[in-house]
Amino acid sequence: MRRNVGSILSLLLCSVMFSGCNVNRTGEYVLYDKIDANFTGCGHGAFVNGLSNLADFQAMAGKDLAVVLSYVHWSDAFPASDAEQVFNNRSVPLITWEPWISHPLGTLEAIASGSYEAYVRGFIQSAKDWGKPLLLRFAHEMNGNWYPWDGYHNGATAEAAEKYKRAWIYIYNVVQDVGAKNIALVWTPNNTDQPQASWNVIQNYYPGDQYVDWIGMDGYNWGYGNWQDFSSTFSTVYTALTALSQKPLMISEFASAEQGGDKAGWIDDTYLRIAGDYPRVKIVCWFNINKERDWRVDSSASAEAAYKRAISDGYFVQSLL
Predict the structure, then answer these.
(1) What is the mean pLDDT of each run of 10 residues along the chain (321 residues)?
(2) Residue 22 has what pLDDT?
(3) What is the extent of the structural domain holding 20?
(4) 212 with 300, same domain?
(5) Reduced to 3 states, what is the DSSP secondary structure of residue 155?
């Protein structure tokens, strides 16, 4: 049978250049490689409170987003259309997968035991089928006391961290079994342990380098009487995480309140410190919403001006693709 030489050469070139190259359902060759940290600078990212706000946020900032943070409820399907919209913006989706589960076994044990096997496999398979680079942040802030998957709500003992690790490893194993090479798993503690107890320290929850692609950290300047500069918010957790692993780091959620200090000054200082003092941080995502505080970068004219000025630094890159 006569073969198409051009197609064969394209396939060979794909195989040589990209070990993660595969074929999607339309017959197009797509890159399945996960996002790593082999790039210069730091990825500029944000949660923009809905993709309908993405264009306006980028226009306001004067810079596109390399990473777009979002949240998916456990029962929801993989948001392929949203992920495609993000990818078409030349951005990487950072999807926070939140297991809001009520189950007799408890949230973590229910996941680890395979009680949601069909759903988990379906979600991961759909992410694989989508076929573009994806950062997947499962069950974040596990050392806090506000989520059904945290240690506090799963026994509040040393065994709670073991339950978390079993659930995490279960998710990792499904990703491997499905062959979703485009998915990078992001393990993300809160910047402080809540409650502060020996069973609840960050290190207890770490499943091991073999199960993690990226490490995130979340933290906020809550303002009012608890105003904290960037280093007061992140230096302790950064030191702990850089000692724990050599995996690339990201700040997956951060922001500052207006009340209690100078937010514009906080923003100026923050981005200077990230670029100068936190070299292991390769992605940062501002949490841009008016929620517990007005976390938005444009909560005041001075804050907006500071943000634009800060991210104009070429160190903060607008695409990782």
Answers:
(1) 38 40 44 86 98 98 98 97 98 98 97 98 98 98 98 97 98 98 98 98 98 98 97 98 98 98 98 98 98 98 98 98 93
(2) 44
(3) 1-31
(4) yes
(5) coil
Tokens 């069950």, residue? 139
Beta strands at 42-47 and 281-287: parallel, antiparallel or unpaired: parallel
Distance, in Å, from the CA atom of 138 to the CA atom of 172, rounded to the nearest integer, reads 10
CA distance 262 to 97: 33
| Rg of the chain on CA atoms, in Å | 20
pLDDT at 10: 41
In sequence order, the β-bridge partners of residue 190 are 218
Q: Where are the beta strands (DSSP E) in 86-181?
A: 92-98, 134-138
Give the CATH number, domain containing residue 259.
3.20.20.80
Name the DSSP class of 290: B
Residue written as token pair 């379906």: 122
How many residues make up the chain in this entry? 321
pTM, whole model, 2 decimals? 0.91
Q: Are residue 22 and residue 54 in the same domain, yes or no?
A: no
Instruction: Tell me: do 236 and 257 sit in the same domain.
Output: yes
CA distance linking residue 48 with residue 34, whole number of Å: 23
